[in-house]
Amino acid sequence: MLSLKARLAAGAAILSAGTILTALTLYLGLNEVAQRLDAAVTSETRVARYSTLSTQAATFLVVASEAVQTGMTAQTRMDRITPVTDQLRRTFTQLHRDVEQAVFAARSLGVDAQSRYGTQSLGLARMEALLGATLSGLAEDTDDTDRLRAHIDTFAAGLDSLLSQAVNTELLFRNNIMTGIGDLRLQLTRIALAIVAATLLAVAVFYLGLIRPQFNRLDRLRRAATQIGQGDFDVALPVSRLDEIGQLSAETNRMARALLARREDVQAQWDRLNDTIAQRTEALRSANAALEEIDDKRRRFFADISHELRTPLTVILMEAQIGKTGSPDPAAAFATIEARAARLNRRIDDLLRLARSDTGQLALDPDRVMLCDLTEDVASEVQAEVDNAGMTLNMDAMPDVAVYCDRNWVRQVLVSLLRNSIRHARAGRHIHVSPELGDDHAGVSVTDNGGGIPAKDQASVFDRFSQGNSATANEGFGVGLALAHWVITEQNGSITLTSPVPVEQALGDAPGTKIAVCLPRHNT
Description:
The chain is an alpha+beta fold. Helix content is 71%, strand content 8%. It contains 10 helices and 7 strands. The chain has a 5-stranded mixed β-sheet. A two-stranded antiparallel sheet has the order 1-3. A hairpin with a 3-residue loop joins strand 4 (430-437) and strand 5 (441-448).
C-alpha cells in the first residue's frame, strides 16, 4: 500500500505532467503559427517584389517604345534601356532568392508545398527568358519599327501573363497559409479546451480521491485531540490505511486508551483517598461534636451557675452594707442574709451534684407548688429592688391552683424576669404581674412599660449569651432568659415573649414587653 507521501507525490507528478504538456502544446502551436506567419510575411514580400517587377517592366516598355519610336540606333537603344534592364535583372535575382528561401522554409509543410513554391522559379525563368528574347530583338541593327515593336508587344503580353500568374500563385499561397493559421488556431483551441477539461478532471480526482479524504481524516484527528484535551478519552479513530495518518490515528487510539486506564487508576486511588478522608473526617467530626457538646454543657453550666450565684451574693452584700451603716431593723437584715445564704448554699449543692453527675446537667426536683405562694415569694424577694429603682410592682391576685415544678428554680426564673424589667424598663416605672390560666396549665406573666424588644432580636433572646442592642444590654451576662427557657421547657412548660404589648394590656405609651411562663397543673 502506497504511503501518503507517495500518493501525494504521484498526484503532484500527474498535475505537473499536465502542466508541462500544456506548456509544450502551447510552445509547439505558437512556433507553428510563427512559422506560418513568417511564410505569409515572405509571401507578401514576394508580392511586393512582383509589384516592383511590374513597375520596372512598365518602365522598360516605355523606355523601349520611346527608343524605337525615335529611331535610335541599336547601340543607342541598348544604352538607353540598359539601366532599366539592370533593375529588372536585380529584381529577378531577389525573387529567385526569395523563392529558394520559401522552398527551404516549406520543408516542414511537406513535399507538395515545396513543389508549389518551386513552380515559381519556372515562372521567373520564363519571364527572364522573355526579357532576354526581347533584348535580343531590340539589339538587332534594323530600322524596322514594326518588327521592333513586335518584340516589345510580345514581351508586354508574355510578361503580363506570367506576372499575373505568379502574383495569383503567391496570393493563393498566402490565403492557404492564413487558412492554415485559422485551422491551427481552431485546433489549438480544441487542444487547450481538452487540456483544461483533463486538468479539471485530474484536479477533481486528485482532490476528491486523495486530498479531501485526508482532510476528513485530519478533521477526525483534530476532534479526537480536542476530545482528549477536554478529558474525554473514549476515542476510537478508524485505521483503514497504514499510511502516515493511519499510523498517527493508531497512536492516538493507543494514547487515549493509556490515558483512560491511567485516569481510571487515578480515580480509583482518589476514591480510596476520599473514602479514607471521609472516614477520618467523620471520626473527627464525631469527636468534635462530642467535645463541643461537652464544652457546651460545661460553658452553659458555669454561665448558669455564675448567674444564679451572683444574685444571692448581691443581696447579701447589699444587706451587709445596709447593716454596716446602721440598719433600723437588724433582725430583718440578718434574716435576709440568712435566707440568701441558704439559697446560695442550695446552688452550691446543685453545683456539687452536677460535678458528681454523669450527664453534666442541672438536676431539677419538681413537686406540687401553689401558684399564690410562689408569686408571693417572688414579690418579697424583688420588692426592695423595685423600690430602689423608683418603680411600681402591681401583682394581681393569684388563683388557688397548684403547678408541678421545681419551686426554687421557677422562683428564680420569675425573679430573673422581674429583674430584667427593672434593668431594661426602668423609664417605664411600671411592672405588672398577672396570672396565666389554661385547662392543663397555669402560670404568670410579667409586663413592663419599657422600650420593647425589636422584632429582629426576638428570635434570639432565649439563646445563650444573646444580648440585644439596647443601652442596657451589657449590664447583664446574657444568660438569664436562656436559663429561664431551659428550666421551664425541661419541666414541660412554656415561656413566650410578646413585644410590643397589645394596647388593651399595655401599661403606658411605650411598646413594652410581656413574658408569660406556663407550667403543668398538678392534679390531685
